[in-house]
Specification:
Shape: rod-shaped
Strand order of the largest sheet: 2-3-7-6-5-4-8
Order of helices and strands: EHEEEEHEEHEHEEEHH
Helix content: 25-40%
CATH class of the largest domain: Alpha Beta
Structural class: alpha/beta
Number of helices: 6
Distance between the termini: 90 Å
CATH architecture of the largest domain: 3-Layer(bba) Sandwich
Radius of gyration: 44 Å
Number of strands: 11
Largest sheet: 7 strands, mixed, barrel
CATH topology of the largest domain: Glucose Oxidase, domain 1
Strand content: 15-25%
């Protein structure tokens, strides 16, 4: 007899992935978030071709007991539903015509079809199946093997296996092989995994929170530092501007001055005409404005409103930033 299929290690990866997802209470999975323990199932699958010496077997921890299943061994000939009613055994007319009447048998059905797991399991249990192996559908979200919930199925052993494992067994049945499955109780995964998940989520939350708070502090400190630097720069510029303004010429207009005539220009800041006795300030570019108008402007902008001449540069005042 030759050994075929995968060894135990080949099945652990998808199985443990499913267990980890269960421990986090993954939404959309068939197992309730409150499940306290998960039992793996060790499967020994053998097949032989009637009338020949061709036989083989494979073994692995490749299944999960259902949440409502008795956790005990079971074994028998593997039988799939009649093809005309579909492999999911959701139809009330689902039948297992190949089931032997004089020996134990295990039903092989596929997940899906629009019915609950309990419907599939009870359909096989009514025909005296010792156990039901539900294989996942192709492209199912989440891990390859998940824990089923199936209340109301009595003492029927129910396990889930992966799509790949289910198709492998089904193809052998379709090719005329007699396939036997022995289900043994594997390992229990309980509250330690849930506690680990809580710890992992707590640590992850702490890390994310600490990183967020740290970034906020860094960003706030940087903004404060930039704001202080800008304030210092503005104070120095205003101090230099006051020094420059003090060096600019002042003049009091008199009656008959060209600036008070009917054709004279008005102040570019307040847009009012110059009148006798107005005090004006003359910039380095020779433009003049009302003193009360131009001084506040120069404190903020330090340039002529008309030609943009920089009074600090024009007066040779070095800006210390």
């Amino acid at each position: 007899m030759r050994r075929a299929g995968s060894a135990r290690a080949a099945w652990l990866s998808p199985l443990l992935a499913g267990l980890l997802l269960l421990s986090f209470g993954a939404g959309g999975g068939p197992c309730p978030a409150g499940a306290q323990s998960v039992w793996t199932a060790w499967l020994n699958v053998s097949w032989r071709l009637p009338g020949s010496n061709s036989s083989a077997w494979s073994a692995g921890e490749s299944g999960l007991f259902g949440q409502d299943s008795p956790v005990r061994p079971a074994a028998g000939l593997v039988v799939a539903p009649d093809a005309r009613e579909g492999l999911n055994a959701c139809s009330p007319r689902s039948n297992f015509s190949a089931a032997p009447a004089d020996q134990p048998w295990v039903a092989l059905v596929q997940r899906g079809g629009g019915c609950m797991f309990s419907v599939k399991i009870n359909a096989a249990a009514r025909l005296r199946a010792q156990a039901v192996a539900v294989f996942n559908y192709d492209g199912a979200a989440g891990p390859e093997v998940q824990t089923m919930t199936h209340p109301g199925t009595g003492n029927t052993v129910a396990i889930m296996i992966s799509y790949a494992k289910g198709r492998e067994i089904l193809q052998k049945i379709e090719r005329g092989y007699q396939v036997t499955m022995a289900i043994e109780v594997g390992k229990k995964h309980g509250s330690w995994m849930n506690n680990y998940s809580i710890f992992f989520v707590s640590v992850s939350f702490f890390i994310v929170t600490a990183a967020t708070v740290g970034y906020f502090i860094f960003y706030s400190a940087r903004r404060l530092r930039v704001a202080r630097a800008q304030n210092r720069r503005q104070r120095r510029l205003k101090a230099d501007a006051r020094k420059a303004i003090g060096q600019l010429q002042l003049r009091t207009l008199k009656q008959g001055d060209e600036e008070t005539g009917p054709d004279a220009d008005s102040c570019a800041v307040c847009i009012e005409a110059y009148k006798p006795n107005d005090v004006v300030r003359i910039l380095t570019c020779n433009h003049l404005f009302h003193k009360s108008c131009i001084d506040p402007w120069l404190l903020e902008h330090r340039t002529c409103p008309m030609c943009k001449c920089d009074i600090l540069k024009a007066l040779g005042i070095e800006v210390n930033l």
